[in-house]
From TrEMBL:
Keyword DNA-binding in annotation: no
Single GO molecular function: transferase activity
Keywords: Transferase
Source taxonomy: Bacteria, Pseudomonadati, Pseudomonadota, Betaproteobacteria, Burkholderiales
Domain annotation Glycosyltransferase 2-like: ranges: 38-195
CDD domains membership: Glyco_tranf_GTA_type
Protein name: Glycosyl transferase family 2
Amino acid sequence: MHQSEGAVNRAATIAASTAFVLETNNLRGGGDIRKAIASLKRLIVRLAQQTVPPSSFAQWIITHDGLPPQERDEIARLAGRPVEFVEIGPGTGYYDAKNLGFERVDPARCTYVAFGDADCVPDGDWLAQLLVPFDQPAAVAPIAVAGRTSYAASIAGTALTTIDFMYFPSPLRDGATRNFYANNVAFRREVFERYRYEPLDGVYRAHCQVMGLRLQAAGLAVHYAPLAHTEHRLPDTRREIVKLRWMRGEDSVGLTPYLVRAYMPDWLQWLGRSGPLGPLCVMAGRLLFSLRALNHQDLTPVHGLRRIAATGFVVGVSLLDTLGAVVRGIGFGARHAVGRDADALSYHRH
């Protein structure tokens, strides 16, 4: 474990006034409720073994779309505490589920809210590392803390991490990040209540990036806690991995106007309305950053032939993503992309 006993105790104090919201959207892919339940139970057991377990929290909220009552009872037993279950419809999107889970947070008991995903495998001190930065005087305490998410520490996992889970330093404060990922972040309750995820038509998983831009525009810095680490699973099948890459590429089209508005001068604002040109620029910039991120951002080092293989993997996956961006940018598939946030892939790998 990375933390001293004193730091764990400080994090536990924060947990006593924190709601933990766990969404399960990414377990419903494949339509097999048995797999979803088994995956969720494995995660609950792992979470119960955290240095600051969710039993320490003021509330534990799980969103779901059809867990049988007996399974809810069993999950609460494994958690070792009462769990509040929020049932959502099968068409409810990933970010909508988080917003709905937040609606159950009790403001009388909770100053903070932490968010996790059921398709991620956290380190043993993940929650402690995520919460302890809040234990500072009010004048310097962060309004939000972003942990570090990655794929598995393989060549392919390292390469994909540089593409999907980048962290950009914030100009607002040292040790802050411009962006975060919704599977590994905590907020002061009133901050999330004001800036919660907004609906974005035709966007799959970029809502948290847009929220990060909104927080930065408001002058609110998100603290980056790299030791608050969780590992994101890959989809279960190769077909779903390709589908994920395509949707990631499509996302760049919906995200481009927000990036252009945030970072480009007035005379380049037309890029946000340029069809495939703006997304192509975004994808080119992302590729350069991804290649530079190898052996940085707390990633597993790759050298020699492993570095060459990782570089080739980054380039190949980026080309597939870019194809999805170009096809969507020229207008094909736009209607199909509407409501994409409700799509669910399957994540049941051990």
